[in-house]
Amino acid sequence: MVKDARVCRNIQPHLNKRQSAKAQGPEGDYFMIFFIIFVIIPLTEIALFIAVGDEIGLLSTLFLCVLTAMIGAVLIRTQGLATLFSARGTMSRGELPVQEMFDGICLAVAGALLMTPGFFTDGIGFSLLVPQFRVWLRHYLSRRFDFEIHGSQTSYGRPRDPDVIEAEYERVDNKDKP
């Protein structure tokens, strides 16, 4: 099988350094993610602890951290139950609860961030508790990663047709009757 020369040519020399690194693999992206999670965020938390501690005092700062964790736990519980009931309603209509699953993931991440001591992670966690922010995030991620979120399919993967009644049946022959 002969391939077209225009398709097979190597285009990497025409890429800049950032595009070339992405073409070679995502190792650089993973390093940056881990660097942000394990270096930048803890340093930000320490700086915020020092700044807030200087303004309101050590005991007030510690009390504020515990208070945000308790408030976050209550909000996670109430929104989590609301999301669960919404998912049950969506599934009872024969649709996949895709939006509710995304909301559940956001709430789980928010819970983890709110239980982590710190003001920066609390800010991110509380923002994930705002439903309008989750809607914006869902739309942003669907555009950014080029996928769509739909929930209008049945569990069998076929579009739901209102004129079709799904049922099970068993054929009974009258051969055994005299």
Outline the structure in words.
- Helices cover 67% and strands 0% of the residues.
- It has 178 residues and is an all-alpha fold.
- The protein has one domain (16-144).
CA-atom Rg in angstroms: 26 Å
How many domains is the backbone divided into? 1
Largest sheet: none
Can you give the helix content as a percent range?
55-70%
Brief rundown of the structure:
The chain is an all-alpha fold and 178 residues long. Helix content is 67%, strand content 0%.
Q: Which keywords apply here?
A:
single chain, 178 residues, mainly alpha, disordered N terminus
Q: Would you spell out the secondary-structure blueprint of this structure?
A:
Elements: H1 5-8, H2 17-24, H3 27-56, H4 58-92, H5 98-115, H6 119-128, H7 131-144
Helix pairs in contact: 3-4, 4-5, 4-6, 5-6
